[in-house]
Amino acid sequence: MELSSFLCIFLAVYRVSAETGLGDEFQPSVKASCVGGTMTIRVDTALPFDGVVHGPNRTEPGCSVTGKGGLKTYLKIDLGVPAGLPGSCGVKYNPDTEERRVAIGVRAHNTIELLEDRLYVVTCGKAGFQNSRNEVSVVQLKVTDGFSKKNTVLEGSAYTLRAEVLNHDPNYGIL
């Protein structure tokens, strides 16, 4: 009798532990962009996401977002908030490289920490390349319809893509 009770308890515990996680089903993809004074972090999931995306302190105002059952979830961080103040979201700035980085947690469940949760360090750097004058030259792309700059385009329409190098390097003849 004792062995059968132990076996039933063991199988019940094994079954519970084997079915509690999302395992391979939770494989989020994280992308970031820094435009103006905002870092936008996009989390893509294969299944509807009801978890949470957050910075180092998930209770800090403006530093977390709860999924609403969609496949894309966005966290926007204001880069204008000085480090150490509420709303800075733990963003670190490196003045030598002009990069900003932040640790991001992507949690499958919005209140329970699971083994499947993922942690990322997201970095936004200064776009461009170093020229022969030891300065940074930036390539700027513009889309026009022949007359004016366009912020959005329509598939199937004709546009011109113009690349311009700001702070160009005359030693290489790139304009």
Descriptive overview:
The chain is mainly β and 175 residues long. Strands 3, 4, 6, 7 and 8 form a 5-stranded antiparallel sheet that branches. Strands 9, 10, 11 and 12 form a 4-stranded antiparallel sheet that branches. It is globular and about 55 Å long. Helices cover 10% and strands 42% of the residues. The longest helix is centred in the N-terminal third of the chain and has 17 residues, at 2-18. A hairpin with a 2-residue loop joins strand 1 and strand 2 (38-49).
In short:
Helix content is 10%, strand content 42%. The chain has 175 residues and is mainly β. Strands 3, 4, 6, 7 and 8 form a five-stranded antiparallel sheet that branches.
Portion of residues in beta strands equals: 35-45%
Cα-to-Cα separation, first versus last residue: 86 Å
Computed over alpha carbons, the radius of gyration is 24 Å
Question: Count of helical segments?
Answer: 1
**What gross morphology would you assign?**
globular
Which structural class do the helices and strands define? Answer: mainly beta
Low-confidence stretches: 5-20
